[in-house]
Amino acid sequence: MTFLQDTIVVLLSQVTFFVGAWIFFVKQLFKDYEVRHIMVQLIFSITLTLSCTMFELIIFEILELLEASSRYFYWCLMLYLLLFVVIVLNPFYIAYYCISNTPYVKPDYIKHLTILVWIIFIVIFWKFGDPFPILSPKQGVLSMEQLVSRIGVIGVTVMALLSGFGAVNYPYTSMAYFIRDVSLTDVMNIEKRLMQAMDMIVIKKKRIAIAKRQSLEKINEGMSRRTGLWSMIYPSGNNRNQENIAQLKLEIAGLEELSRQLFLEAHENRNMFERIEWSKTWKGIYFNFLGYIFSVYCTWKIFICTINIVFDRVGKKDPVTRGIEIAIHWMGFNFDVNFWSQQVSFYLVGCIVVTSIRGLLLTLTKFFNRMSSSKSSNIIVLILAQIMGMYFVSSVLLMRMNMPPQYRTIITQVLGDLQFNFYHRWFDVIFLVSALGSIVTLYLAHKQPVHENL
């Protein structure tokens, strides 16, 4: 009876997650496109549902909801289902839609080529884990460890890249210190220059059209009068028109290049001016304050990652346990350790879960809106679903370290004999590279605005 009640709770939560994922797909990702393939929508919604369910099970571990045997069963079930989607189902359909959209491929060969590409993917995926110290000789071929270890390397890499870029980009986009000083007069002047360049392009294109029409009229007139003095005058007049048209085309090409540069500068100045006005609001002041906090966090994180890499160090204790030890031994507080450990872990992991899901969905939405088209939208959605699945599996690997030992027992049993320390060191390395690369890139972009290249 208890297992049945636990099953009802998990199923109800999954239905809620699935409906939310379906609405997000229709209202956010595909709001500008027609949903032509229901399978694409199902795969994306199922991937997001399984990912959210795993995060829900982490919360259940901390709150000790459901029976321990039920949590273990659903951990195994959800993780195997997500691995099936990420390794089998999603790559197969990505290959299918890529081949289907390829011209000159006969419909009879699509299924055979899809199977061949999927087999190649499986071979590459399996060989991918060989260079990394993530495997143990005790593990079977299709064991949980074999699959999660390979997915974890890719997912942790994606997480570290996004985290490193976000830790640098957020202060850069939210702090008033990095906003270039632009006045409304600067915006109006550059827009006026852009309009003048566009007017000159229109005038010169009109002159080309008039010259072509005059040449055509002279040709028609010359066909009827090919004798006498006209036959001597006509060729020189026609050559002069051709030279004028060639000269006008060269001038138009230069003006079009100038207009493109002016448009980029006008767009940048308009955005800067809007950011200046936004930074004066209460919301802008609040985000400016958060930007300073994140800049301190970014500096601290880069320092800690460097220390971890140089000294080959991995944290042995979760932040909750470390914080409670500091409060008891150094500050002299006396309180119920088990109770507050559960409460603080719940809020900490809850914040990590919410921010991880929200941040990833926002990033996926921006990427999809920028890269998708009517032909490639299905493929891009499946690729995003693939990244999302690997991202959330890796999140469970890394989030395990943020939980007190008493709440990570079942997760450790489900994931098996993995080299958890390797994933934390790998995250530090990729995060450091991503953060430093983002700092260099944003520094160059900030020091070389568009108008210097005009």
List keywords for this structure.
single chain, about 80% helix, disordered C terminus, about 450 residues, mainly alpha, globular
Written overview of the protein:
The chain is mostly helical and 454 residues long. It is built from 13 helices and no strands. It has helices at residues 2-29, 38-63, 68-100, 107-128, 144-174, 184-224, 230-279, 282-310, 319-330, 337-371, 377-399, 409-415, 420-447. The radius of gyration is 31 Å and the shape is globular.
TL;DR of this structure?
Helix content is 80%, strand content 0%.
Topology:
Blueprint: H1 2-29, H2 38-63, H3 68-100, H4 107-128, H5 144-174, H6 184-224, H7 230-279, H8 282-310, H9 319-330, H10 337-371, H11 377-399, H12 409-415, H13 420-447
Helix pairs in contact: 1-2, 2-3, 2-10, 2-11, 3-4, 3-11, 3-12, 5-8, 5-11, 5-13, 6-7, 8-13, 10-11
Summing up helix and strand content along with how strands pair, one would put the structural category as: mainly alpha
Q: Tell me, what's the shape?
A: globular
Oligomer: single chain
Helix content: over 70%
Number of strands: 0
Largest sheet: none
Distance between the ends: 74 Å
Spans of at least 5 consecutive residues whose pLDDT stays below 50 are 450-454
